[in-house]
Specification:
The structure holds two protein chains of two kinds. Helix content of chain A is about 65%, strand content about 0%. By secondary structure, chain A is mostly helical. In chain A, a hairpin with a 2-residue loop joins β3 (about 760) and β4 (about 765). Chain B starts with a strand and ends with a strand. Classes of the chains: A mainly alpha, B mainly beta.
Amino acid sequence: MAAVQWRSSGRSYDAELQRCRPEFAPVDFGDYHPLKAITVTDTKTRRGARKGSTSSSCSSSSSSVPPDPLSSLMDGTDPLSMFAAAETPAITHSASAGDLGKKKKEEEAVGADFEPWSLKRGEILARFTTTEKLSINLFMGSDRGKAPSPGPSAVSEKVRTRLEELDDLEEGSQKELLNLSQQDYANRIEELNQSLKEAWSSDQKVKALKIVIQCSKLLSDTSVIQFYPSKFVLITDILDTFGRLVFDRIWTMCSDPRTLPESFTVDDVNDTAKETCLNWFFKIASIRELLPRLYVEAAILKCNRFLNKSGIQETLPRLTAMIRGIGDPLVAAYARAYLCRVGMEVAPQLKDSLNRNFFDLLGSFRQISSESVQNQLVLQRVEVPEYLTLYSPAINWILQCIAYRAPEPLLMEMMERCKKLGNNALLLNSVMRAFRAEFVAARATDFIGMIKDCDEAGFPKHLLFGSLGRSVACADPPESERLTILNEAWKVVTKVRSPQDYINCAEIWVEFTCRHFAKREVNTVLADIIKHMTPDRAFEDAYPQLQSVIRKILTYFQDFSVLFSMERFLPFLDMFQKDSVRVEVCRSIMEVFIKNQVDPTRDPVILNAMLHICKTMHDSVNALTLEDEKRSLSLLIIGFIRMVSFGRDFEQQLSFCVEARASFCNLESVLVQLIHTVNTLAMETSSVMRGNHSRKTAAFVRACAAYSFITVPSLSSIFSRLSLYLLSGQVALANQCLSQADAFLKAAVSLLPDVPRSITVEGKLRSSESFLLDFINNFLSTLLVVPDHPEHGVLYLVRGLLNMVQDYSWEESSDAKVRVYISALPLLAAMSQESYLYSIPKVDSNETLYGGDPKFLSEINKLCETLIGQILDQLKTLGRDEQSARRQASMAFSLFGVLLAHGDLRNNKLSQLFVNLWNLSQKHGHSETRVSVRTLDFLKLQSQQADMSHLSETVQRLALQTRT
Amino acid sequence: MSVTLDIRLKRANKVYHEGELVAGVILLVCKEPLQHHGVSLNLEGLVNLQLSSKSVGVFEAFYNSVKPIQLISSNIEVAKAGKIPGGKTEIPFEFPLNTKGNKVLYETYHGVFVNIQYTLRCDMKRSLLAKDLSRSCEFIVHSQPQKAKVVPTPVNFTITPDTLQNSRERSAVPKFLVRGKLDATNCVISQPLTGELVVENSDVPIKSIELQLVRVETCGCAEGYARDATEIQNIQIAEGDVCHGLPIPIYMVFPRLFICPTLETTNFKVEFEVNVVMVLHDDHLITENFPLKLCRV
């Protein structure tokens, strides 16, 4: 095909714009318009006011809100929701045998502010651990061989053995498991729990009871005493299961024919259920040993409700008294805790037995120092203070139950009673833990006095102060006493020798200090902590506590200028020397900063400190860091960078960016952000100067450009490099830095050959083609305003780009190269206009440089011709192959479109090409008919315009392909 | 062809008193119609006496002569020979619980040497080819409440080495002092045995304190008698070295079936006792015995 001569059609952009604008008609205030804001001044829905009326149930103004016909039709509530409303109680009713109903009830009885056992459970399990070997001793028959029968005269040996044999029939006589680790032990207990459930479901009630009895018997064994609280937790779980099973079973027995209401009375229970229930109680009453009898009866305490009204009321005091028979004070204390727990659950209104329990506990308190206990401790090599702490969960729990919604005088009485027992530290500790924080806080000074009076040998004082600290941290002691409290407390805390004990206690008091005092006091506290934790690198074992200190400070000090003006804060941070912890801490600080810092800051203290923190985070990044981790760190740092603003001091800002670049060079997205920041900076400068740069600002803007120019190459992602080059080039151009802009664009062009054919996007390998095309189109549109370099030839950059495109190794089967060519044509056409579509203020584009010089225009036309030649070649190549017909059609149509929009069709040759292209695109039936029809319509419309008459003739020649 | 025969009493707890009606249904479940030669129901109350192995040697002659004593016996025919339709058939019945003559219905009691038991037995006679069916069911008789009012008389006790009776070496017994109180020894069967106990002091730590419920059964006649005491149950009320000076509750629920109001007849006696047993750490065993008189009100 002979070379086509290109003529760009002349455009008058202003006129075209005018033509494109739709006519507009002003809308009067009162007129209706769908987009006008709807203002409803008064809407009242009177439901059911008039039966069946569709009108006037709403009164609305502004006419745009019609009454909802559905809702207005309804007389009152609609039948469906009425059904639903009626159904709900029935449904919950029937489900009440399940957990839902029951749970709800428990909550009602106790209230949400009661810290439930389930929370304590985990805490106890985590706290009381042991490395000693444990043993489980289960006598699954009767206790044969254990202690010769106590009534030697009374029992006939034969009968006894016979009975025992009967018992033993079911399972092996005895199991003893020795040398269990703590975990094994827990697993065993869980196994027992499972076998309990299994036995129950397979209707082996007796076996189930035996399991429970054996388990509760384990609680009398205090051989590994450190583990006792945890053992208690594990075993009482089984008891709870058992209690639930029995209750549910009897419940279902009464639920025939209808379910028992939640608040059932004895009269609702049928005889069979009563008999079964009574049987359980008789069975349990005949359990030989005290502890299992006590625990199992407590476990099914709730079942008393089936038998009589006052059952629970009578049983609780009896069981309470029964505990007196337990010799070991620890076992007794926990039995009391269990009873209180069950009591709270089943009958929270019965406070008396709770109190009774506590007084009994006080009454038997001297047991703790009894000889048998002391002997045991010596045997097990357990220190007294450690032994005493074993009591705390139980006593705490009892006191918590008592103190729950208890009147002040009762608490006072309890306190007095504890005082009378020689200020027993253990009790005091529990009192402080369990009583309301407000109560304790109000008497904090008294408590301090009492703590001081305590015997140092027994219970460690730092624990006492820890408990006190917890109370005063969440409730406010009287204003005037606060400083004394802090001083007194810290005096003791600072004397604690063991770093671990010290930090546990200090951590609690930090919160009090933060809550009630300013930075000076907190600073002092921090200094003290540093002093204690630094020797022998004690901080290494206390990271969780130190972290919690930081968290507490951050909760109360959210003004970072105050925070960082604490001298000891950064040194405190230096104690986190393990990398992971350190980053964790930095991260939490950054999160708080980003959340709370609203205004940009230039405070040097903050900047310094934050830079330090960010640098720490940045430095933690290494080759092994996960992508996600990097991303989240980057986000935090970027958040910080965005918060930095030096206001009008642009140079300072730039130098900050320089510093930041040096610090965060490993995080790419941070660098990207920095380049964006610097570009924004340049644009801000320009807007401050209203576009007229002085010499100084011009130099500054050039510095910004330089910054970007040297930062971009350090990025690894090629597309961010490309787009940043382009963006920075645009910024440079906007700031009249022509040579810089040139350099940016040139760099971008020379980078093009390096673009790989495929890139990973979100972990998937994708072809880079579409990205590349996008970028090139974007780039082309920028090139319109870039003036030619005086030393290089005409259209130096455009040629360069096209050369690169030509040499780029495109994928074999793609038309991307030709698409670029096609999209370069509109650019070239736009360049040949007398005045350009857009331009940059204060930058002379080619239009002014060349002033429509014919030589320049002919250069452009030549270039166009070359391009068209290339495109046509490609079309021809595609024509050879049947399969590529569709591609050929679509490409031909694209070129057709370009010609229509930009070519001067008065030119015969061009016009001929135009028609040929149309025919080509229609030839194989791959064109979209709808688009073709619309194009023709458009052409006809165009041809009616004055200067477009030449088109009408051409249109005649365009035949629409018909599909058959 | 499977048939199940069952007796269902009306009362869930199966407890009846003299003069009342024992009512219930006989439940027959079969898949196909069933031919039978008559269904009869038999009610019987028996006292079984047995001699302990210890006494057998002495009373061998008289051993065989201990025959069960029949308290009540009656028989009714529930259904005449015929056919029972397939499915579930319920045949109601009623028995008046009345004795003949001057016989008394003793309370149900399951002991070692004395057993007082009431049973209902249902028999279904069938043709030669099929086995006869039989089903029995125990029901419980409670004796008539005692007319006289029970006035609880508390019993106080003190146990010290000096109060011990049959210790061989009194000097070897460690010192201790236990005070206690039983709220009553004439107890109502349906109510627990209560009281309290205070360990005032004890040189040797206490291992355990237990309540032992003992039955004393006497069987015999003119020629002689055998008296045996056996344990019914043992309830621990204190474990380990309990706090001195603190009252520990004594509380024991009387088990059902294994206990009855104290009974004295010409042929046998059933009495009960409770032992307070204290085990010291050096395995000294100290027992204090209290005879009980049980009754029903």
